[in-house]
Structures are given as structure tokens and as C-alpha cells.
Amino acid sequence: MTTGNNHYPVHGAGLGLRREVMDEMKQITTDQVDFMEVAPENWIGVGGAHAKNFRAFTERFDFVLHGLSLSIGGPSALDEELVKAVGKLMQQHGIKFYSEHLSYCSDDGHLYDLLPIPFTEEAVHHTAKRIRRVQDILGQQIAMENASYYTPAPGAEMQEIDFIKAVLEEADCKLLLDINNIYVNAINHRYDPVAFMQALPAERIAYGHIAGHYNEADDLIVDTHGADVIENVWQLLDKTYQHCGVFPTLLERDFNIPPVAELLSEVDRIKQLQQKWTTATTPANERARG
After folding, report:
1. Which of 56, 63, 82, 203 matches a 20 to 30 Å C-alpha distance to 142?
2. What does R_g of the chain's alpha carbons equal in angstroms?
3. What is the distance between the alpha carbons of residues 219 and 243, in angstroms, rounded to a whole number?
4. pLDDT, tens digit, for every residue of 98-120?
5. What HEC string does 65-118 produce?
6. What is this structure's pTM?
7. pLDDT at 283
8. 177-215: per-residue pLDDT in tens?
9. How far apart are CA 224 and CA 211, in angstroms?
10. Residue 143: which CATH number?
């Protein structure tokens, strides 16, 4: 097991805040959920009652932002106005951290999908330069999420794992480790998810995601965030904590949202795995004092 990164922006087990169930989520306590996450695009410029409701959450919980539309690897000019708006939102609400997908979604217009960046040296340099610019504007490191994809971009010169590591290193940014995306890609592109996870730089992990997916076929699954987390993905999270150390992890659920009690049961399972590996790696004399 590696020591991992002890300087995480948040801690514990998190849950995505969804506007359509905000009223029901008001019952959640800080004992049940340690931090929350929203897409900044859904909250930039929002006022009135929605802004007031959001403020009630950001005053109680630590928050992170997970972007949807920055298109960090895209060919169009970087949307610096969006980055500045993200920074303003972070300042307004005391939000700890910002992450995005290691993908692209625009080319002189929004493509409404997250597409894979070509795994090439040129794309590494292009993407890393844009990440560094975002970090300069915000005045802090950001994290890139290992993205799910269903067909590789043409012209690949390296493997997915080598592309991710090269971008993180050249940009000197953090990793948002999505456990479900590793599993989805491992099935769809036929590689070992545990070996892939173990090859990632644990010291760059900022926090993690876990989510459900949809089985289209035996050899094709789709990252939907619309179902319960399956047992194989829970087992992969368990192995990841064992190898990388315990890091903050958030449950994503974007549609087919069940009652809050069911969401909290999955958050509780994250907590249980975190406690398992925290206890396993704490020296016996420290456990005795506790």
C-alpha cells in the first residue's frame, strides 16, 4: 500500500447535490455526508430562491465543483471567461476545489458529449498547457478525471494510462479518480481494472468518484450515473483504498434518483470501506490510545 496524498481538499464520503431533490436533501446532516459536489455550470449566475437554497448547503457542507463544459482537450480556444466565473463562484461560496473531465466537448460549438482526446504526444502538450492556464487563473491546482469513452480517438500513439500520467505530470495537476470509469473502460476496452488503477499516480489523487452504470451488452457498458453501484465496482474501490490509501470519495447519482435514505446507504458503504482501510493502516498503539 502506498501512503497517498494527505493534503486532500475535502475529507470523508461525499454526495452530489441535485437541484431536483434539494428539498429532500435538506434533511442530510454533516454526520451522514462529509462533503458535496455540484457542476458549476448549473449555478453560475443563478439568483433568487435557488441561490438562497444553495447558500444554505454551502454554509453547512464542504463543497467541490466538477465541471462539464470546459472542454480541456478541445481544439477551440480555452473558455477563460468560464474559468473566471468558476473562480468567482468558488469565492462566493467558499468552495474548496474544482475538477474537470480529461476529455473535450466543443469545437466552435458545444457537442453535448464528452469525447476522448487522442492519445498522442501533441495532445498531451496541448491539454497540459490549457490545464496550466486554468490553474494560473484560479491560483490553485485543479484535478482531471479519468474519463469513460466508447471508441478511441484515431491516431493513438500511446495507451490510455500513459496518456493520463503524461498529462498529469506535464500540467502538474491533481487526479480525480473515477472508480466506475476505470471499470467501464476495462470492460469496453478489455484491460485489467486493478492493474490500471495500480499504474495511476496515487500521490496526485485529490478525491474520487463512484457511480452506477448501464449494461448495454456483455462487452459494452455505459457510464450513466443512473443506477446503484454494482458489487464489482465496490470491490475495485476496496482494492484502490488498499493500494492508494484512503482518499475522499463521492457518490454520483444524476438521474433515476432514489429516496435520500437509499443514497445515504451507499454513502455509508463508502464510509465503511474508508474505516476498514484507515483502521488496517493505523498502528496498534495509536488504535489503543483512541
Report:
1. 56
2. 18
3. 27
4. 999 998 774 554 444 567 888 99
5. EECCCCCCCCCCCCCHHHHHHHHHHHHHHCCCEEEEECCEEECCCEEEEEECCC
6. 0.90
7. 54
8. 999 999 999 998 889 999 999 999 999 999 999 987 656
9. 8
10. 3.20.20.150
Is residue 264, in this structure, part of any structural domain at all?
A: yes
Are the C-beta atoms of 18 and 218 separated by less than 8 Å? no
Q: In DSSP terms, which residues pair with 115 in a beta bridge?
A: 104
pLDDT higher than 70, residue 220: no
Nearest to 16 by CA among 269, 251, 235: 251
Q: pLDDT band for position 284 (50/70/90)?
A: very low
Instruction: Report the domain count for the chain.
Output: 1
Task: Give the chain's largest Cα–Cα span.
Answer: 60
pLDDT of 69 above 90: no
Domain membership flag for residue 195: yes
pLDDT digits (tens, 9 = 90+) for 155-180: 789 999 999 999 999 999 999 999 99
Take residue 179 and report the three cell numbers written for it.
472508480
C-alpha to C-alpha distance for 238 and 195, rounded to whole angstroms? 14
Which residues on adjacent β-strands are paired with residue 177?
208
- Look at residue 31 and tell me if it is in a domain: yes
Q: Rounded CA gap, 207 and 14, in Å?
A: 10
Q: Is 111 within 8 Å of 105 (Cβ atoms)?
A: yes
Q: By residue range, what is the domain housing residue 180?
A: 13-289
The answer to whether residue 92 sits within a structural domain is yes
